[in-house]
Specification:
- The protein has helices spanning 33-54, 108-123, 174-185, 208-222, 236-239, 251-267, 293-304, 331-339, 400-408, 420-424, 455-466, 472-483, 488-508, 566-571, 581-584, 599-622, 630-662, and strands at 24-28, 59-63, 74-79, 92-97, 100-105, 132-135, 141-145, 165-166, 169-170, 190-192, 227-231, 273-276, 310-314, 350-355, 378-384, 435-439, 546-547, 587-588.
- With 674 residues, it is an alpha/beta fold.
- The strands form 4 sheets. An 8-stranded parallel barrel has the order 7-10-11-12-13-14-15-16. A 6-stranded mixed β-sheet has the order 2-1-3-5-4-6.
- α11 (455-466) packs across α12 and α12 packs across α13 (488-508).
- The structure holds alpha-D-glucopyranuronic acid.
Amino acid sequence: MEYSQCWLNYKSVKNYQDAGLLEYIYGIKSSDSRDNRLVDNAVKELSSALRTMLGIDIKVEISDCPSGNKPDRGIILDIGGEAAEGLHEEGYRLRQEGELLYVNARSGKGILYSAFDIIRKVASKEPLRGIDRVEQPYNNLRMLNHWDNMNGDIERGYSGKSFFFRDEEVLVNSRTLDYARLLASVGINGAVINNVNVRGAASRLVTDRYLDKLREIADIFEGYGIKLYLSANFAAPIELGGLATADPLDREVADWWKACVKNIYDHIPDFGGFLIKADSEGRPGPFTYNRTHADGANLLARALKPYGGLLIWRCFVYNCQQDWRDYKTDRARAAYDNFIGLDGLFDDNVILQIKNGPVDFQVREPVSPLFGGLKNTNMILEVQAAQEYTGQQKDVCYLVPMWKEILDFETYACKEYGKVADIVSGRAYGQVNCGMAAVSNTGNDYNWTGHDLAAANFYGFGRLSWEPGLTSEQIAAEWIRQTFPESEQIFKVVKDILMGSLQTYEKYTVPLGIGWMVNPSHHYGPNVDGYEYDRWGTYHRADRNGLGVDRTRKGTGYTTQYNEPNASMYDNIETCPEELLLFFHYIRYDYMLKSGKTLMQHIYDTHFEGVEEVEGMLKAWEGLKDLLPEDVYDRVLKRFNMQLNNAVEWRDRINTYFYRKSGIDDEKHRRIYY
Ligand code: GCU
């Protein structure tokens, strides 16, 4: 095979007790051809999955009109019937009665999602008898963002080249279809396929040069309930239209965007909309014209509005530069400072996309205070499945537990619905255009994600955005059962590796929320002072007495961006969660932590433990040699060896750096040297 199908590599499932319910599929064609395509794809997937998993050749009868012969066994697919009333447009109800399994939905999308649910249940050997469940997405928008460039490179990509672009051309091939299947199987319903940094040929994606080809992608996506979105260049009216300005309040600029968007919808009627990164890291934006983010976003939103399109505006859009002698400016404050005053000024089809933390996808950050701050604005939570700062898909790092913590964070923004999950799903303030997005970790590698185990993040993001109530263990378990051959030993080892991996990574890298300390530019491996004198405000401020950034009221004032009691909790060194201590406070090396260890001893111990844990994972993996397909075993083993080297380097560099700075010996007298 040219490439793996990830968790859709169906495998034999022995002795599945409810196989008898799955031998027939009956349904009636809908009057909507889009629904019929979705149902066709659902049936195709079920047929091929059940053939491989259970050895059954399903008999399919999807007729044009009711035949009168009510079947007495099998799956009954029904769109728009009474049982679907009140359901979400993408939701479904699964109900077993006698020898029948009813699937009721309001659209073909619900039927498609139910098919993947049935497949998941069979792979996990969950019973279908006795089932009566309604499943509906918690978030309306469940999206992937690709940072793919048109030359085929992927910004922060760790799994090969782009499967959307090569040599400034758009690719449409079997990967496009399999990608759509993978997305639909976990409930993802939107994909932005090009990098947020829109340059060169990518600016032209919105023009006739590329639209026919993009339509082919959009067509495939539509059959799987996915909308195609593009990142666009705010300066396009100048670069493509030859106008003198891209000022959002200029009439000609507005007309240019209107014509551009109309042309897109003429080609791609199901187009989702734009994602914009403006006024950030050298990208153009409304600031050039002394206009606000709201002016910029509304300009594009108004062009998209007549077609139902969405305008997603990223909040990572500031150029917060400083020098290290300045203790008052704080990059962590910037997103909030830029956007909080604009709450309520965005049109209803504008969505602000906010990174999970205030800085930049570090292994540990507090939740962005914009969640809980903004109240009259649609929001999307942006996380990074691509492991830029969490091991770059060489080190294993299962991120679902991190995302769960973020979603479960209580912002105290409102009484009943104060959690981040409630805010980004739109429940807190009754919004519709809300949800979650992940920077994708995929590429054209054989296994899609570089590290085979990184596919758990791809899978997990989708499942979590559909249902944030799932636990990290549940998601890991589902993924393992669908990905690996049936074996309790594989299951246990892989699950333990995944569940411990984030904590292990955190132990051997940066302590207690301080972040950075990575090699500049590519961001893999340790370099304690790599960003310490940089202009981007990425400081740890270590000196001979201690380290950490004072972000309290007395320091940069960042803590005041949170609602109470969070503001006071972070402000007070006694109540600040220890895992974030150095993010919020400057701490002496001899400060006693709750564990009874000094900060310095904590740094030494966690770094030694981190390496030991990687050794443990490597050993556990080696124990699976005879149970796993050889290629999977070898690929992952190679990565564990790289991870071990990385962990050792981190341990030795960090420990040595702080040993020399502090002059404090390790109580356990281990070798501290790099
Ligand atoms: C990070 C990342 C960049 C990316 C940026 C963004 O800074 O290193 O490559 O462009 O985030 O989110 O826009």
